[in-house]
TrEMBL record:
GO molecular function, one term: DNA-binding transcription factor activity
Protein name: Putative transcriptional regulatory protein, ArsR family protein
InterPro entries registered for this protein in UniProt: ArsR-like_HTH, HTH_ArsR_DNA-bd_dom, Metal_resp_trans_reg, WH-like_DNA-bd_sf, WH_DNA-bd_sf
Organism lineage string: Bacteria, Pseudomonadati, Pseudomonadota, Alphaproteobacteria, Parvularculales
PROSITE patterns in UniProt: HTH_ARSR_2
SUPFAM superfamilies reported in the protein's UniProt record: Winged helix' DNA-binding domain
Keyword DNA-binding among record annotations: yes
Signal peptide: none
Pfam families in alphabetical order: HTH_20 (PF12840)
Domain HTH arsR-type: 1-95
Keywords, sorted A to Z: DNA-binding, Transcription, Transcription regulation
Amino acid sequence: MEISHAVAALGALAQQTRLRVFRLLITEGAKGLPATEIAARLGVRRNLMSAHLRALHQAGLSISRREGRQIYHAVDVAAVRHLLTFLVQDCCQGNADQCASLLNDILPLTGCKGEASMGQELLN
């Protein structure tokens, strides 16, 4: 990942409503949510929600798909993986044990289910 892409992604998340949208979409996974439901859940006006969703999309953090009359928005998991990898790729000066320890400490806090070794897979 180029640093300019990381800056764009982090910049998009540096706004309170967009960060809330991103966190909500993370919980929904690949199925995503329509903009109207996102707006309702977060108490944001629909016209403002469109701008926030556009910013997340332009930063490469979200994807959308049409289902009938609704457009569903979801987090782009591959993009999030690339961003997180970029942020920790030089972790602990390449000491695999320290990196694995850091990521394995974080993983349980995410609510993700699976092996603790998943943190190491992120770096590979």
